[in-house]
Amino acid sequence: MKNMSTILNHLKQHPDFRKINTNEKIQRFINILPMKLKKGIKFAYIRNEILFFVLTHPIYKMEFEYNKALIKSLLNNAHMTNINDFKFFVTNKIEKKQEKPKENELYKERSYGIFKNHIENKKLHTLLEEIRDLIKNS
Fold this sequence. Notes:
Radius of gyration: 27 Å
Number of strands: 3
Number of helices: 6
Organism: Malaciobacter mytili LMG 24559
Protein name: DUF721 domain-containing protein
Distance between the termini: 53 Å
Order of helices and strands: HHHEEHHEH
CATH architecture of the largest domain: 2-Layer Sandwich
Strand content: 5-15%
Largest sheet: 3 strands, mixed
Strand order of the largest sheet: 1-2-3
CATH topology of the largest domain: Alpha-Beta Plaits
């Protein structure tokens, strides 16, 4: 019987999943970049043998300008043969920051705490009554 990694490797070899392999190569390349460049990349993609970096802020664009030679040498060392050039630009879409709910406001309670407590075990009975009080108070 084959294990999961063997099956996944076999699927990756299939030509229909070429996009998965290129995305994986791009992600490996991004991981070898220095931290000051890596943290500014929103995502990257390849089109017409050009690697495009989409950046999050114009400051990172300047960092990429200053480190063009480093990125070219890393591209050569990474053996990404299908890439002739690279370009970078700043996205004009603003990311929506998801607000984290407060601890006590995880969700709005939809129950009113109206139910019958048929439990005969004293411990469980009191526990269920405490839950009912929490529901009524929220």
